Amino acid sequence: MDIQPTTHPLSPADDIVIRAARPADCEGIAALGDNPGYRWGTLRLPYRTPEAIRKWIEGTDPANNISLVVEQSGRIIGNGGFERHQGRRAHVGYLGMGLHDGFHGRRIGSRLLRELITIADDWMNLRRIELTVYVDNVPAIALYKRNGFEIEGTHRDFAFRGGAFADAYAMARIKP
């Protein structure tokens, strides 16, 4: 069955498409990861090669992972997805997402997050979605809270970023 990408019009002039990531997207995803703001909010290291991105996409288990990209006029401006846990935690998915530095404040991240939540709730029957977010990423924290995520704790010295250790919140959403 061929599933068509989901088009999310923000205004008549915007052509935003959210669709599954594919190996051919490796150049665009690598370029996205080199945006300083995007990288600052994630665990990605600088200068990941398109070949490394391709291997990651090709190695993803489609039965337990969702990997989406956001396109505008054929250019990848965001990505996100989640990995379903196994065994006794099969009801849980771990979410990650990011948006190109030049596209914040346009509700694109909200649309991507809602699409991921819909897949988790309506297609994968996930009860719990978990994520980590740096404590200084105020816009992302607000986005997650608006979508039902709650702060469950703080990971001290969670990751090394910009020459120093940074804390992150553990957040989760339980399916209502």
TrEMBL record:
Gene3D superfamilies: 3.40.630.30. It comes from the Bacteria. InterPro entries: Acyl_CoA_acyltransferase, GNAT_dom, N-acetyltransferase. It holds the Pfam family Acetyltransf_1. Residues 16-176 form the N-acetyltransferase domain. This is GNAT family N-acetyltransferase.
